[in-house]
Design a protein that fits this description.
By secondary structure, this protein is an alpha/beta fold. The chain has two domains: 86 residues, Orthogonal Bundle (Arc Repressor Mutant, subunit A), CATH 1.10.10; 276 residues, Aldolase class I (TIM Barrel). It has 19 helices and 14 strands. A nine-stranded mixed beta sheet has the order 11-10-9-8-7-6-12-13-14. A three-stranded antiparallel beta sheet has the order 2-3-4. It has a two-stranded antiparallel ribbon with strand order 1-5. Helix 12 links the parallel strand 10 and strand 11. Helix 2 crosses helix 3 and helix 13 crosses helix 17. The protein is globular.
Length: 475
């Protein structure tokens, strides 16, 4: 119970964006998501400094015209809302000490964030590729080898083309001003970029929740400690096998499995949400359960990736690492939730939210609909990101597309697709409206498994109930 005229203040670990008169808020103490209206936003903003309920009432009644309620009713509503915020650990009386930051998990509120982005047509999630350089040589990587190489002559040329620290910080500022809340940093290997922790700290100060994609191999205990002080919502670490030798052969780097798994364990112990990400290939499809067990033993969750795509220069040598029909069936049976058949979409529904609630910026400044969709809408060196977002003909075209615009493949159209992605379509078929052949093959393989009369009913259920089984994932 509050004492009369008691001063209140925001909790220390709130992450939020104010968009017009609304506030999108993630509580860094409890990891809960909120969307506040105009009055709620005004109250929260005024609690950056200590205030009483009476002061909040004076502020709200002085700035917002509310004809529907009497002053007495407004005061009661504000009082009730303040007590709600206290119970939710969003604010506290100043006599109480700040609460410590809790575990931030992107997955717990990602759907809500995405939905707001679609509704308001703003990039609530964005990705920045800080560099394509990497010290590993993963066989399946979509980045061409010359773009990853550590060879000095190649790296010097590449670094001259890549965004400077100042340019990246400018992009971060622009994204914050546009309402972006979730920022993913990817590479290459992000932790071999000079000054990466300066970039991360700046994004933290600008109120972003960070998602990081890394091999984990460059991380030391000191670097992990520094990460734990930031608003990191997830760290995704690539691990390709439960077996060190298999993983190291895949990355082309002896000892990489040991360094990656050690980093995962360190980060989990420091209270970070770590997700082990495994691309499914012929060398590991039999061991997906063991990979999941490895993740759990390290304190991490687990997710999978399929299919292996062509490289961004359209080199399709990576296709040799795709599963054949028998291998794919075994993988589907092993991790059915990952391969779950989506509900059919209406012809009037969007194909995907790329350029609707998300965008991606390459290391050279190109603005893409998403990191998989290599169709530049502009470059941040040529103009403001907000102008590209609002006025790019590429983005306007993509926002108009609906499921009914998809073209049939070989005269055949499916009612639903597993892993349908316009970016993959463009990369593999040179047309973002033609479903990629691998998407069609995977979808048919899943349908065939569902139709098998003797498969385990739990497997069938997971394959046919994507929304229900997603939360019961392979993690």
């Amino acid at each position: 119970m509050l004492i009369n005229n008691e001063l209140l203040i925001q909790e220390s670990h709130l992450i939020y964006r104010i968009i017009e008169d609304e506030c999108l808020l993630v509580n860094g103490v409890t990891n809960k998501w909120y969307r506040l209206n105009q009055v709620g936003t005004l109250i929260l903003e005024n609690l950056k400094q200590p205030s009483t309920i009476k002061q909040l009432f004076d502020k709200v009644s002085g700035e917002i015209s509310i004809d529907e309620v009497s002053p007495e009713e407004l005061y009661t509503d504000i009082n009730d809302f303040v007590h709600y915020l206290i119970a939710e650990q969003v604010i506290r009386p100043t006599r109480q000490p700040p609460r410590p930051k809790g575990l931030i998990r992107v997955d717990d509120w990602r759907d809500e964030l995405d939905a707001v982005g679609v509704e308001l047509m703003i990039p609530t999630w964005a990705k920045i590729e800080v560099s394509t350089t990497c010290h590993l040589s993963c066989a399946h990587c979509y980045i061409p080898a010359t773009e990853r190489s550590l060879k000095r002559e190649l790296r010097v040329v590449r670094e001259e083309r890549e965004m400077s620290d100042g340019e990246i910080l400018s992009v971060i500022d622009q994204l914050a001003d546009m309402g972006c809340l979730l920022l993913t940093l990817t590479g290459g290997e992000i932790f071999i970029r000079r000054n990466i922790f300066d970039i991360l700290a700046y994004a933290h100060e600008r109120g972003f929740i960070l998602e990081l994609f890394t091999s984990g191999t460059p991380l030391t205990p000191e670097k992990v400690s520094a990460l734990s002080e930031l608003n990191v919502g997830r760290v995704q670490v690539s691990v390709y096998s439960h077996d060190a030798e298999t993983h190291d052969r895949f990355t082309g780097s002896a000892g990489s499995w040991k360094r990656s798994t050690a980093a995962i364990k360190l980060m989990a112990e420091k209270g970070l949400h770590v997700e082990l990400v495994c691309s499914i290939v012929p060398d590991n499809y039999r061991d997906l359960e063991k990979i999941r067990e490895l993740a759990a033993s390290l304190g991490a969750t687990c997710s999978y990736g399929y299919p292996i795509t062509a490289r961004t220069d359209q080199n399709r040598d990576t296709h040799s690492m795709r599963l054949d029909k028998t291998e794919l069936r075994d993988a589907i049976l092993s991790v059915p939730s990952f391969f779950a058949m989506p509900e059919p979409k209406e012809k009037t529904e969007r194909i995907c939210p790329a350029a609707v609630n998300m965008c991606s910026i390459t290391s050279s400044g190109d603005v893409l609909p998403c990191s998989q969709f290599h169709l530049p809408a502009g470059n941040v060196r040529d103009g403001q990101l907000s102008n590209i977002w609002q006025n790019s003909p590429v983005f306007s075209k993509l926002r108009s597309l609906r499921m009914g615009d998809l073209k049939s493949r070989d005269g055949e159209s499916l009612s639903s697709y597993v892993g349908l992605c316009p970016g993959l379509n463009l990369l593999e078929e040179d047309d973002f409206l033609i479903p990629a052949s691998i998407t069609v093959e995977t979808t048919k393989a899943v349908a065939d498994v569902i139709a098998e009369p003797d498969i385990d009913e739990e497997v069938r259920y997971r394959l046919t109930h994507p929304d229900e089984t997603r939360m019961r994932s392979e993690s």
